Amino acid sequence: MRVRLVGGLAICFVGLLVVVGTATAGAGAPRPRVVPQFTLRQARSRPHASASSSLSRSASASAGTLLQSFQGIFDPGFTPSDSNGAVSPTRQVELVNSMVGIWNRSSTPSLLSQTTLQTLTGAPESSVFDPNVIWDPQTRRFYYSALDDTSNLLLVGFSKSASPSAPSDFCHYSISQPNHIDMTLIGDSRSFIMIGTFLFFSGPEVVWYDKPPSGTSCPSNLTTGTQPIPASGAGNYPPDPVRQVDANATGYVVFATGAPASTLGVIPVTRSSTGTPVFGAEKDVTVPAFSAAPPAPQAAATQLIGVMDPRPTEATSAIDPGRSGKTAIWTTQVVAGGAGAAVRWYEINPVTATLFQSGVVSDSNLWVYNGGIAPDRLVNGSTHKFGNAMAVTVDTSSSTTHIAIRYVTKIDGHAQSALTAVKQSSATYQSFDCQASGAICRWGDYPGVAPDPSASSSATRGVVWMANMWNVANSNPTGGTAWRTWIFRVRP
């Protein structure tokens, strides 16, 4: 059962419904945006065990090299940011609620286009949110997902080439859903694009469609279908299809069933002889026990920051040369720990449903949340290299510190680095959704993180691209919000 507050009513979401349909090309001119009053997807607070910092500076390795760092796009009319993105060798695409930015990649990136998600997706409504985007090295396209909750539409599409410069360089489609949708998390296999969602009155599901053929034209329709994930699978959370860096005929979906717990779930996805996806049996991966984290404090305010529940998001699979060339899944979740909240990370062997390794990003004085991880795997055409190092981006705050973007890195066989600051907020976070004293402010949902396909193959390691949230002072907290995004690249 899932409970969500809507208009002051507690609505329970149970049951299961299967939908299979054909996606058709979307259309429609942009309309004025409506600011949605988002409701809180925040886990119930529960006591947490005291813990000392897992980031002892005397035992930690070097935090790698910060290669690039600059401000991304933002929209003051929506919260939270859902800031995420993906990179090709020539472009980076950043999606936030409810905007898209397309950047030309260079030593000084230039913003080629910034517009609304409605324009990108061709949605009939202006309230388009919960976006997600990936870069697929196999088909050399960007793929996105978002939702129009007014019309119950899952919005999907892809770039016509590796170097889009405007929304017109994308194909867009809509897939009708039977009821309201929560979040979209996108991943892929060699054959399919998969989007994990949660239907408020049905439960968790994965919507899939065939990857498009080569060429720059938009197919008139997509072959698509829906796979419900049983309650023993994703439970109350959207399942997270894994993003492939190295193409693999088997894709994966990861999920958490709730909290407290000591397992994560993995479902393999293959292709049948008739070309449809086959979702295999759930495999349970034993992990250190975890529970949901309480909201985080911030300096000079009674308002708390929502740190989300322990669902895994932004999972990525890639070959790890340090594991005899086996495919690994990298993912994170927010759990109770450290000063209150910590980010747990995992490298999972999906074949044996065991851990290659795991760790935690925590601090005895800071709440650590809104985490994302990616390996430094380089896949660009015929170049396949690296993959045994990683970087994690997080946000931190405490009762004496404002929100900051930080990261850690780890090279296989070495200690995890200490938390390194990238961007520090200089003001308290205030927003239209959390004006009352003690209110919980929506934050994050997920950051952007991906291996960088433009990394130098002659370097010692690859590069991880990241985008995360920070904030400025809000001069109008009753009528808007003041989050910002920051984009950076790190070599572990």
Written overview of the protein:
- This protein is mainly beta and about 500 residues long.
- It has one domain (about 50-490): Neuraminidase, CATH 2.120.10.
- About 0% of the residues lie in helices and about 50% in strands.
- The chain is built from 1 helix and 37 strands.
- The chain has one helix at about 115-120; strands spanning about 1-5, 10-15, 20-25, 65-70, 85, 90-95, 100-105, 110-115, 130-135, 140-150, 155-160, 170-175, 180-190, 190-200, 205-210, 220-230, 240, 245, 250-255, 260-270, 275-280, 285-290, 305, 315-320, 325-335, 340-350, 355-360, 365-375, 380, 385, 390-400, 400-410, 420-425, 440, 450, 465-470, 485-490.
- It has a 9-stranded antiparallel β-sheet with strand order 9-10-11-12-3-16-15-14-13.
- A hairpin with a 5-residue loop joins strand 24 and strand 25.
- The longest helix has 5 residues, at about 115-120.
- It is globular.
Brief write-up:
The protein is mostly beta strands. The protein has one helix at 117-121; strands at residues 2-6, 9-13, 22-25, 65-71, 84-87, 91-96, 99-104, 110-116, 129-136, 141-148, 153-159, 170-176, 181-188, 192-199, 203-210, 221-228, 240-241, 243-244, 251-255, 261-271, 277-279, 283-290, 304-305, 313-320, 326-337, 340-349, 354-361, 367-375, 378-380, 383-385, 389-398, 401-411, 420-424, 440-441, 448-451, 464-471, 483-491. The protein contains 1 helix and 37 strands.
